[in-house]
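Reopening this ticket.

The earlier resolution said the output was attached, but the attachment link was broken on my side. Pasting everything inline this time so it's all in one place.
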Amino acid sequence: ASYLSSILAGEHPRYRQIVLVGHSMGGLVILHALLKLERDNYPMLKKTDLKVLTFGTPFLGVQNTESLLLICSNRQVNDMTALNDTLGELGREWTQRFNQGAGQGMRDTPQVPLYAFRGTEDRFVSAISACGHTLSSCESVDGDHNSIVKPSNPNHLAYQKLKQVVTRGRVSATPKGKVGIWVAKLTGDDPSFAAQRSIARSL
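Inline output:
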């Protein structure tokens, strides 16, 4: 978070937007850093156009970590057990302190959209965990846990999704009492949603 603050406050020319990309536990590191930045430097975070992309991030933990604890006991393994308290608290904090409209007596929160992606062949982080309970948008990309972030050419789905997110405008807060709908699934690559995609595009 300190490094991110120094980058945002640096002397270099201001970027139109900043996209943070996290793979696996890197996505959790980004959320922790942004939560700390929200506490330490709220005005800077509020005025910066930030987006977060995560690929195969275990928001709800990883199954079968108990077997790893038999051969090594370290904090990372403990923090990755499925549905553990640490990850639950991270999810609750993110939901409460980001992407909320200003309610009565509440301050407006920073608008930092989080786009989660899961690998179609990922056997390490389940689709449910990679999509998490704090997210509005989750799509699949080709590959296993490692190859989803190693595009071999510009046609790779992960690269195409990154390009799409970068070209989207800044997301505004959802007004209190209104429902924000993300049409991520309808604009994805599943051909069975072709009819819904055409409806969504005409709205």
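Reporter confirms the inline version is readable. The CA atoms of residues 77 and 142 lie 27 Å apart. The beta strands are 18-23, 50-55, 114-119, 138-141.
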